[in-house]
Amino acid sequence: MRGDLRGLKIRMDVVSHNRKSWDQYVESGNPWTIPVTSEEVDRARHGNWQIFLTPTRPVPEDWFPPLPGLDVLCLASGGGQQGPLLAAAGAVVTVFDNSPRQLAQDREVAERDGLSLSLVEGDMADLSCFSTESFDLILNPVSNCFAPHLEPIWQEAARTLRPGGELLAGFVNPVNYLFDGEKEKEGIFQIIHKMPYSDLTSISEEERGRLYGAESALEFGHSLEGQIGGQIRAGLVIQGFYEDIALGEKISDYMPTFIATKARKITD
């Protein structure tokens, strides 16, 4: 029991820290916090839209079922980006995010463009506010790198999906966390970290502050077994897969470091 309580405290400390970090990212204009324009919303109303789970590559159109009337959860997906476009395309959208400022971006777009969005603040590993089998589609852009444990995220996603429902998820290839951060900036890829990676234990607080800033969000490098195998163990079947790069990252000159998957909840 003591170990369980310690794990819960760590998770809640991470959630609290990252909430403050993402609120600050909104103020500094992080790309994942910049809302879509009214022009993009209008195009989505007419069936012309693109959704991103990873930095640069849009989700294939055939990954989406028909959206009108579909119950969609945008999981850890605040920022006024995915949710408003899906709502404009006809979906019934709930945006769930840890950051009040990220949710405020969605609220501002909804008020500006006359969209209906349900906004809920919370931890992506705890969807207990939603009933079992609440959603037809869950959209989860790159975000589980800010959570210390993957299993509860996949389990909760599977629980809240209806049979035959789909999870579209983006995440970081763990190779991204292997290298010396200082040397990587120079294009030198020296492996110094073991997987799984954790900002809490893999580097010192002083080093993290020097490399990324003391107030930066805490990150965790999860294994591919945890990312893909975790979805399968939760009762999901992987049906789609692609990779992506991040502009401005030197490692992207050599390999993609982001992954997106499409998974369906198994029906009895």
Describe this structure in words.
The chain has 268 residues and is of the alpha/beta class. The chain has one domain (2-174, 222-265): Vaccinia Virus protein VP39 (Rossmann fold). 33% of the residues lie in helices and 21% in strands. It contains eight helices and nine strands. The chain has helices at 2-28, 38-45, 82-88, 100-113, 151-160, 181-184, 205-212, 224-233; strands at 71-75, 92-97, 117-121, 135-140, 161-172, 197-198, 220-221, 236-244, 258-265. The strands form two sheets. Strands 3-2-1-4-5-9-8 form a seven-stranded mixed β-sheet, with helices on both faces. α2 runs parallel beside α3. The radius of gyration is 18 Å and the shape is globular. It starts with a helix and ends with a strand.
Keywords:
268 residues; Rossmann fold; 7-stranded mixed beta sheet; 9 strands; globular
